[in-house]
Write a structure and sequence with these properties.
This protein is α+β, with helices and mostly antiparallel strands. It has one domain (about 10-75, about 85-95). The chain has helices at about 10-20, 80-95; strands spanning about 25-35, 40-50, 55-60, 65-70, 70-75. Helix 1 packs across helix 2. The protein is globular and about 40 Å long.
Length: about 100
């Protein structure tokens, strides 16, 4: 395992924490996976199952940050706050979760 810090990793873990705090019974961590490609670029993926939806956070050492909800890309501007990111995720799965 590569111990170097990924840009945005703290942001991602804070968003995941917010999801867990919002709906503890309906959340499970599917996986945290770290790997590198043939060019030795390191990547880390966090998979979260929230009710009937899959949320995936994709990070790379060189600053890539992608967010997917049910395999649809969600734009994440550099200025997005943790609360805004959580809101964007919740908006996309709100029809699946009885609040």
């Amino acid at each position: 395992m590569n111990d170097d810090v990924y840009p945005n990793e703290d942001f991602v873990t804070d968003v995941i924490g917010k999801i867990i705090n919002d709906d503890l019974a309906g959340v499970s961590i599917g996986y945290v996976d770290e790997f590198h490609d043939h060019d030795d670029n390191w990547f880390k993926h966090f998979g979260v199952k929230w009710r009937d939806s899959w949320i995936q956070f994709n990070l790379s050492k060189n600053g890539l940050f992608e967010l997917e909800v049910d395999w649809a890309n969600i734009p994440v501007p550099q200025s997005m706050s943790i609360d805004d990111c959580f809101g964007e995720i919740k908006k996309r799965i709100v029809t699946l979760i009885p609040f």
